[in-house]
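TL;DR need structure tokens for one chain.
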Amino acid sequence: MNKKFFYLSFIVAAIIFNGCSDTEDPVIKLDSRYLDNVYGPAPEFDILVSPVKNVLFEEFTGHKCGFCPPATAMVKQWDAEMEERLVPVTIHAGTLAAVGSEPFERDFTNPDGNVYWAQVEGGFNPSARINRVTGIQNAYPDAFWRDMIDEEIAEAPQVAMQMVTSYVAEDGIVNIHAHSQFLNNLSGNYDLVVLLTESKIISAQEDYSQDPSEILDYEHNYVLHDAVTPALGIPLASNPRGNDVFVKSFSYEMNPNWNPEHCHIVAFVIDRSTGEVLNVVEKDVVQ
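>> reply
TL;DR here they are.
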């Protein structure tokens, strides 16, 4: 197959950026600037000697999607095999993710996930985007997933990514420092997206492969809770040159209903014109 928030300082910049996007981001987040006066300067990063390209795997699912658990189980197995090279994000969206009667009262949806669901124009569950290589509007069924992952993971990276997170329990704050180093001269505009996910959430799930099909103690993993940046990202670089380095830092207040021990921060760089993910990195909130 041929495939080929540093923080928003000004509201006007966010408005201009979102006005250029194919899908409007309804959530303009301006509350996650890094509190260096409280937590000190951002850390220094060493330059990676042998950077690799990781894969962002966005799975669209729902707790009433009875065909989703077998596909999700494959992703969990691949994640264990590939470790940091594969970064899953589970997006609950669409009618099969809607809150229903018992036992489906839990709401896993959120405005940021709805932005991504709108990008695929209300697709189907289960489906997934792999580094958004064929455009933000395209999500594929599980028959295509592994081949696309293997193709992406074998490519040389255009940008190297690193990240440091630190959790301040007494404040309920996770500090995030995302380091992006461009490896080649590139044209165009590139943006940074930072998401928060949670794993090991026990809640009901429909599973047609089981009898009875309503699994009350199903373990939901990689669940998208929120975007630290806007869902469509923040400006990172314009026409970057090889070895250009950018560090963006955030202080994000955790929802007290989330378990920080099971939460992860996902950061990735995208090509603004195509939506394609150049690289992605994931770190646990609590190291």
